From TrEMBL:
InterPro entries: AB_hydrolase_fold, Tannase/feruloyl_esterase. SUPFAM superfamilies: alpha/beta-Hydrolases (SSF53474). Its EC number is 3.1.1.73. It is an enzyme of class 3 (hydrolase). Transmembrane segments: none annotated. It comes from Pigmentiphaga litoralis. Keywords: Calcium, Disulfide bond, Hydrolase, Metal-binding, Serine esterase, Signal. Belongs to the tannase family. It comes from the Bacteria. This is Feruloyl esterase. Residues 1-21 form the signal peptide.
């Protein structure tokens, strides 16, 4: 690192060192007097105006500069994380028309020698919170920064007020940064800052995120195995292309033929409520959580039959489902799709959701399609698919999503396949990461309406197929959590995932056979369940407190 503008602090430190050296006399035997160790304030302030050379980053940039460095004190308003240096800066792109990567790095005055990089969400565009717990982490343990972790994150290489805004992807470098490059670029700058502040690089580098951040965590392990020691991936958009094309398929299913496939909110709620009534107790107890999802899916066809319009019925918000609603919308939502061509890593399908097993489908509050679609009035996934197709695929802001046939995308097929390699974490080849001791904690919610639990379970299954279960268990654990949705849900998991990961990486102990997870929802805060490894699920033992993990056993049937 170099200083762009000499700081008064550094000048003062240099003068002090010179004065002390002069006091040592001019005798040959005079002992050398070591330079004084800068105070945390001086060390932090010295980072202001410094730069990180492009050569210090492994991927192409024009280097980085520090825009501000400020010491945050324990008594400062809102700070419960101890003393740390808050560093903000920007990584310059090679393309002068591309946006910067803006980042934040927090350097604790009492460092544990380790670092945690936080992932983003949606299409990113802002720096994630770096002074909070790891995603789905413990509600009772100190947050990573307070534990002495250096924490860091970036906006992935563009700035946007709305995480649904994908217009940045019209720029090639911004697209590549979002896909994967910002991960390593941000990490490399943080390492340079650590060397400057502490005199050494972190001995452990971890990544944690959910959704887009979960994809980034898996991407860190797959693309940069030498740079990361462990990752926490929660409900990742790992098959990013599959998910976005699923949104495009849902758009056609719902809005074609004058929105004939749209299901009104009252009927969406009716489907979810009836599914819960049928499936809640299949795990041994009626607690509002569907844990025995295989058993529930086995009877979903009967639910559709019961709700389908009979002779003389035409369908309305609360009484029955039309043939079009069933064959189009429910089919795409529940079962997903299969393509006649393959994404990267020979992926040809995107599996569906538990839309007939208790989750509430996100189909929008109105039948009319808005151009461009808006999440809320329109189906949630449709707006993000629209942004993706406009800016990543067609690169035409005027493109109409409803004209895209994902089964036969024509001139866009090659572009779609190319993007599936640029943005995604669908490879099963973790060999380099595994062989150097890297570890993965992968969590997926069964109630997730945004990322298919079956798509991620299938990707995990490919890892098991490649290595075998025993070898896969040495570096990866996959958990499917009943009640957990997408950063929310009926059971909002909180567990000490960072401590479990760190102990595993350090060789202290493998993850517990059955970790305990706690619900952090206000209404049910403190209830617990076993965190069961896939494909097992929590089954009530028949006796004991239904809100205590000890009353459950991880079962397969």
């Amino acid at each position: 690192m170099t200083a762009r503008h000499p700081s008064r602090v550094l000048l003062a430190l240099g003068a002090l060192t010179t004065a002390l050296a002069a006091c040592g006399g001019d005798g040959d035997d005079a002992p050398a007097i070591p330079a004084p160790t800068p105070t945390p304030l001086a060390a932090c302030m010295a980072l202001n105006g410094t730069t990180v050379a492009a050569a210090d980053l492994s991927l192409p940039t024009r280097g980085a500069w520090i825009t501000s460095a400020a010491l945050v004190l324990p008594g400062d308003a809102g700070n419960t994380n101890g003393e740390y240096c808050k560093v903000l800066g920007a990584i310059k792109p090679t393309d002068a028309t591309a946006p910067d990567i803006r980042f934040q790095v927090n350097l604790p005055s009492t460092w544990n020698g380790k670092a945690l990089q936080f992932g983003g969400g949606g299409y990113n565009g802002s720096i994630p919170n770096t002074v909070t717990k790891a995603p789905l982490g413990s509600d009772t343990a100190p947050v990573p920064l307070a534990q002495g972790y250096m924490t860091l994150a970036s906006d992935s290489g563009h700035q946007a007020a709305d995480a649904d805004d994908a217009s940045f992807a019209l720029n090639d470098e911004a697209l590549l940064n979002f896909g994967y490059m910002h991960i390593k670029k941000t990490r490399d700058v943080a390492v340079a800052l650590a060397k400057s502040r502490y005199g050494s690089a972190p001995k452990r580098m971890y990544y944690a995120g959910g959704s887009t951040g979960g994809r980034e965590a898996l991407t860190a392990a797959l693309r940069f195995p030498e740079a990361y020691d462990g990752v926490i991936s929660n409900y990742p958009t790992a098959n990013f292309l599959g998910l976005r094309l699923w949104g495009a398929a849902l758009a056609r299913a719902v809005y074609d033929n004058s929105s004939a496939g749209w299901i009104p909110p009252a009927m969406v709620s009716e489907i979810a409520n009836r599914a819960l009534q049928r499936c809640d107790a299949l795990d041994g107890v009626a607690d509002g959580l569907v844990s025995n999802m295989p058993g529930c899916r086995a009877i979903s066809a009967q639910l559709v039959s019961d709700l389908s319009c009979k002779a003389g019925e035409t369908g309305n918000p609360t009484t029955c489902l039309t043939p079009v609603q069933i064959s189009k919308t429910l089919s795409v939502y529940h079962d997903g799709y299969t393509l006649p061509y393959a994404f990267a890593n020979n992926i040809t399908r995107y599996l569906g959701y538990n839309s007939l097993e208790g989750i509430t489908m996100q189909l929008g509050s109105q039948a009319a399609y808005i151009e461009p679609p808006v999440s809320g009035p329109n189906a949630h996934h449709v707006s993000r698919a629209d942004q993706f197709v406009k800016y990543f695929v067609a690169r035409n802001p005027a493109f109409n999503l409803l004209t895209l046939d994902i089964q036969n995308p024509g001139i866009y097929q090659n572009r779609i396949v190319e993007l599936s390699d640029t943005i995604g974490a669908t490879s099963s080849d973790y060999t380099k990461f595994k062989d150097r001791g890297g570890k993965v904690l992968w969590v997926q919610g069964q109630d997730d309406p945004s990322v298919s639990p079956y798509a991620n379970a299938e990707l995990y299954g490919a890892v098991v197929t490649r290595y075998g279960q025993a070898a896969a268990d040495t570096f990866m654990r996959f958990y499917l959590i009943p009640g957990l949705a997408h950063g929310n849900g009926k059971f909002l998991l909180a567990w000490d995932n960072l401590a479990i990961l760190d102990d595993w990486v350090e060789g202290k102990q493998s993850p517990p056979a059955t970790p305990v997870g706690f619900d952090s929802n206000t209404a049910t805060k403190g209830r617990s369940r076993p965190v069961c490894v896939y494909p097992t699920w929590p089954k009530y033992n028949g006796t004991g407190d239904i809100n205590a993990a000890a009353s459950y056993t991880c079962a397969r049937s």
